[in-house]
Amino acid sequence: MIVGLLLAAGGARRFGSQKLIHPFDGRPLVRHAAEVLAAATGALVVVVGNGANAVSASLEGLGARIVENPHWSDGLSTSLRAGIAALPSDAEAAIVCLGDQPRVSGDVIRRVIETWRATRLPIVSARYRGTRGHPVLFDAAVFSELGGLSGDAGARMLIERDATRVGYVDVDAAVPGDVDSPDDLKLVQETE
Q1: Whole-model pTM?
Q2: Residue % of the chain over a pLDDT of 90
């Protein structure tokens, strides 16, 4: 089974409030990426941290497994580790998306999964006009490496460590915008 892993634990310091529950096109911001990821995968795990109760409530009805990361303020790697530890035992791969990227494409997620199935490379990432971005799929073979990450760089070092084990899905579009500030929210709403 391929599991969607949505990272939704960040502090939202630049936004001024919990951005993930902020209304976006009529629904909480985080729900957009969650719905797209859930539709493309066999199960969904969502890692929450800052404002955990409110973020969790905004995801009701999706059937997601909610995992609370008490160490969210220590960086993105703590959320990856918490999510990987919560994957079901039959997970063949996890495809990671960010809760503050509401315009992530279901088509791109499916293309990343198809590329992994065709190549069986340990890591497959979307690449937008030459820039690596999410979603990123990790085969179960690298779950233990993800479990050993530290800091706020996420899996970047793991991806960059050995280019021979990384596949790419090239997308002729800009990287999906992430929402870090109210101005970012306006920009993302204007791009469809």
Answers
A1: 0.92
A2: 65
